[in-house]
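Pipeline run #58 for the internal structure catalog. This entry was flagged by the ingest filter as a single-chain record with no existing model, so it goes straight to prediction. Upstream metadata was stripped on purpose; only the residue string is passed forward. Reviewer on rotation: M.T. Logging verbosity set to normal.
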Amino acid sequence: MIQKRIDELIKILNKASYEYHTLDMPSISDQEYDDYYAELVKLETENPSLVREDSPTVRIGATVIDGFEKVTHERPMMSLGDIFNEEEIRDFDNKVRKVVANPTYVCELKIDGLSVSLLYQDGKLIRGATRGDGTVGENITHNVKTIKSVPLSLPQDIDIEVRGEIYMPKSSFEALNKERREKGEKEFANPRNAAAGSVRQLDSKVAASRNLSTFLYHIPNAIDYDIHSQEECLNYMKELTFTVNPNIIHAKNIEEVIEYISYWQVHRPELPYEIDGVVIKVDNLQDQSRLGFTARVPKWAIAYKFPAEEVLTQLKNIEFCVGRTGKITPRADLTPVHLAGSIISSVTLHNEDYIKEKDIKIGDTISIHKAGDVIPEVVEVKKDRRTGEEIDFKMITHCPICGTELVRKESEAAYFCLNPDCDARKIEGLIHFASRDAMNLDGFGENIIEDFYNMKYLHTIDDYYTLHNHKESLKELEGFGEKSINNLLVAIEKSKENSLEKLLFGLGIRHVGKKNAVILAEYYQSLDNLMEATLEELVDIPDIGEIIAESVVGYFAKDENKRCIEKLKEYGVNFQYIGKEKLETEEFSGKTFVLTGTLSIPREEAKELIEYRGGKVTSSVTSKTSVVVVGLSPGSKYDKAKELGVVIWEEEEFLQKVNYQK
C-alpha cells in the first residue's frame, strides 16, 4: 500500500515537473506540488528501502564524491566550426550545395552553457557526462540528477543517449551572485562560468542550490530510432519529455537562416538565458552522412558566433599614419582577433594624449570593442597582465614619410606634417577622392592608387580625368588588361555625373564631412556660388560654424586649389547640386521597398539607389510594402509578398529602373 502511494506521488510530481520546467504549462499549483512533495519525503523517510532512483527527492542533492570518474564516449562529442559574418554563412551553404542539391537547414540557438551527454538504460538515467576533450569526459551524474529539467526516467523503456547543454538561467545567475556578494565571496563573471563551476562540484547539494537547467538537441545515433531528419530528432526528444528549445526553425534556404540570425542578434537580450550564437545544421540525416566530417568537426553543421562585445588581444607595435590633412595618427598593430563579425589586426590610438591617458604600452594586453558596433577601439589596458617587458610609448617628432618636423597646434591634440608635397598626404587625398562616399571611383583600391601615384600617372585629384590618355601604357602593367582598364575609365566617366555634395566631400576640405558637404551643396546649389561665399555668410548657415567656415574660405583662397577646380570643370565634372528632387520618380518617391535574396550589387548600394530616388527601405514585408526586390534564393519575404499581393521586381528589372550600369 505504501509502495503504491509512493509510485503515485512520483508519477504526479514528475509529470508536474515536466509541465513546469519543459512545457511551461503547469497543471497544478505550487502549493499542491509542495503538499505532494512533503508527503513523499515523509513516506521515504519512514520507508528508506522503498526510495526509487527516479524520485524527485534526489533533486535536492545528497551525494558527495571524492573525485570525478573519467568517461569514454562511445561516439565522440565533436565541437563545431565557427563562422562570424554573412559571407562565411553563404560560403558554408555553397560547400553544402556541392554535395546536396537543395539543402534545408534547422537553426537552433547556441546556448552559452556546458555540453552534456545523458545516457539512459531501460528508460532510466544511468549517467551524465561532460564533453571533456570530445573522447573522454567526466562523470557528473550526481549533479545532473539535481537538475529539474532532466528526466530521471522516460515514458519508454529504451536505451538511448541524448546530448545538449546545461545552462544557468539569468535569474539564477543574478540570485547566485547576490548571495555571493552578501557573503563577501567572489562573483561569477557570467552564467556559463557559473554553470560549469556548478556541475563540477563534488557535493551535489551545491549544484542543486544553483537552479541549473538544460536544453537537449542531439541523438548521436538517431537513425537507429527510425529518425531521418534533425527536425524529427527534436520532436522525438520532446516525446521523451526532454526540454527542447522552443526557438528553433526549419529554414528552406540560406536566406531564411540569415533572417533568423539577424532576428536573434537583436532580440537575444529578451531571452531568460544567455546565447552566444546560432547553430546551423543540414536537416536531412542522410545528407549529413554524405557530407561527413573533417578530423575535428562535422561538415554538415556550423556555429555562427554573435559579435563579442569585448575581446582581448596583444598590442604588438605602434605605427604612425599620415592623413590627407597631414594629421599624424598613432595606430596599434594587434595580434589578429575576431570582433563583431570581422578580424581586427589594428586599431587607431587617436593621438598622444589618448595614449597617455589610457597608459598604453607596446606589449600590453588590451581589451577592444566596436564603438557603435562599427569602429574598433581600445577599452582598457589589462595592467594586471604586465610582465615588466612592455615598452613605454614615445611620440615621434618628424613625419615618418617625408621627414618634415611635426607641429602640434595649441588648439589641437594631434601633431601635423605641414609639408604640402608629402607623398603620404597626397596619396591619402587621392584615396579619399575615389572613396565610395566621395566620387565613388569603383575599382580604385588603395593599392592601385598608390601604384599609379608612384608611376606618376596620378599626382593630384584632377589627374584621374586624364588617365584615359595613358590607356595603352596602363594595359601593359602587370595585373591589368583591356577589360580592367576600361572598367576604371568607365567609373571615372560615370563620376562626372555625381551631385555636388560628393565632389565637395571628395575635395578633402578640412572639417567638411559628408553631412556638411550636403548642407553646403543644398544651400549654394553650385560650386561656383560656394567659392564666392564669404566667411560671414557661411557662419550664418545652420550647422556650419566658424571653424568649418574658415576652412572652406581658406581652401578656395589657395591658388593650387583654384587651378585644380578649373581643371575639373574643363574635364566635365558636374559642379551642380542634383539632389533628391531631381532624381525622384513616380516609381520610387514615397514608396516602401524590401530587399530579399542574394543581389549582384551590395545591399547598401541598392538601398542608396532607392533612397536617392525618394523611396524608403524596410526589413519586413507588410501590407504597406510597395515593392519587394528579389535576388537569387529569396527567403520567406518573397513568399509573404506573394501572399499579400505586393508588387515584385526581379533584380534585373530593378537595376533597369535605376539605370544601373554594371
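catalog note: The mean pLDDT is 88.
catalog note: The CA atoms of residues 139 and 217 lie 20 Å apart.
status: ready for reviewer M.T.
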